[in-house]
Write a structure and sequence with these properties.
With 545 residues, this protein is an alpha/beta fold. The protein has a domain of 201 residues. Helices cover 35% and strands 17% of the residues. β15, α9 and β16 form a beta-alpha-beta unit. α12 runs parallel beside α13 and α16 packs across α17. The longest helix is centred in the C-terminal third of the chain and has 17 residues. Bound molecules: iron/sulfur cluster. The site of iron/sulfur cluster has 11 residues, from α7.
Length: 545
Amino acid sequence: MTVFDRERLLFTPASAEPDAIGTIFAFPNEYSVGITSLGYQIVWATLARRSDLRVSRLFTDLHEPLVRSPQLLGFSFSWELDYINILNLLEFLEIPLHSCDRDDSHPLVFGGGSVLSANPEPFADFFDIILVGDGENLLDDFIDAYQEVKNSDYPPGSGKADRQTKLRHLAQVPGIYVPSLYEVTYSSPDGEIQAIAPIDANIPPTVQKQTYRGNVLSASTVVTEKAAWENIYMVEVVRSCPEMCRFCLASYLTLPFRTASLEGSLIPAIEKGLKVTDRIGLLGASVTQHPEFESLLDYLSQPQYDSVRLSIASVRTNTVTEKLAKTLARRDTRSITIAVESGSEKVRKIINKKLTNEEIIQAAINAKAGGLKAIKLYGMVGIPGEEDSDLEQTLEMLQAVKKAASGLRITFGCSTFVPKSHTPFQWFGVNKDAQKKLKWLEKQLRSRGIEFRPESYNWSVIQALISRGDRRLSSVLKLTRQYGDSLGSYKRAFKELKGKLPALDDYVHSDWQTSRILPWDCIDGPLPKTTLIKHLNEATNFWQK
Ligand code: SF4
């Protein structure tokens, strides 16, 4: 029995028509990781429901029997460092790594997912097509447009369309970005971007990220014991987050905040899932902010669901009630994670985190009273405007939490601020003192009985590089693929390519002028740049006073 035979499908794949388009849909990691991605599941099911496609799935460790001579090859790309696996899979399929080296004998390579929606540019050379935004309508629009163009007779007499004709046609579809049809010029090889422009007047000047506005959100299309979360059935409760913390990609990139209808989407989805598993994951950037979250909890608290195991992706601090804690504790959850960012009120104002220390302490008290055993607080150092006294306040806040909820295991997870595209903080660099700040916190917390779990500072630097990278970064990525994914490898690649692209420091640590042309300026995100600058100015007011 293969891994695929063990899957329980919650949709009916179509039988492919004789002239169906051969398509490979890949996840650039192992099967257990890919099949646990709701995004991958949804896109695969959308493609597999179409009788005009013949789809086979490909992962790094296994694959279905692959279609011969595929016309389309797609990647779901949700973790930055998986680019290495994308390049490996292209080689495995004997497809040139660079879009410019492919010809009519090769499939069109398309990609989508959170990494590409945020900033496609470091990967632009590897993809023919990038789908920007929500897939709900975009995927079908893409396939329909491909069907329209594939048999158009260009060049005349050929009986089919050549690669360039297909790409030009697809570039007209809102949300489809064809990087090769945009030219980027620089002030010098290692200087700033001077302009990003379509290669001619027939190509749209910018690409609008697509936003799905329905109130039926997604849910698992497949459940399997081989998933990283064994037998998990995932339900998307909300999309985006209305809080708009100024560094937050999960909020700004996916605005507006949308909620699944309780009666029309959530309950039918959960009932469908519970027919095949007893493990439910509620997903979304800010699940507990669903306006009917209490009713959802009441629904899941019914006695017939006593054996259901429940996980919640994200909980806003001031929504941790005793009732929520009790429901989770009864449903096999022992701990809860909340993002507090900082114990300093000034820093929370800078980032627009609408939270008080009293609310954080109360959340811990409620978690304990509801029967949970542990709480994980998540914070960040290196936030623009942060001073040493702000870190001291974080320490004091953590001690106050420990005192108020004694017996509850407290963990403080801490990352470094990383600038993200389409957010008001995209112009700030990574603070070079962040590593020192993490070390200081580690030392202080060790002696106070609070477990500290810092995220690697070096990993934050790599994230920032990819987050603010432009097309010139693709040569770095190709080198680091051979050197390994440590920060040292990236530094080595930059040294080797000196003079051909800006220094690592410029991408990662420099504060950028708001007048600077950004690598992702050809993509229109949810908010215009003028609004992001307004939000940035509101933030800087808090430390310039
Ligand atoms: S509350 Fe969390 S998800 Fe929402 S904007 Fe703030 S950091 Fe992002």
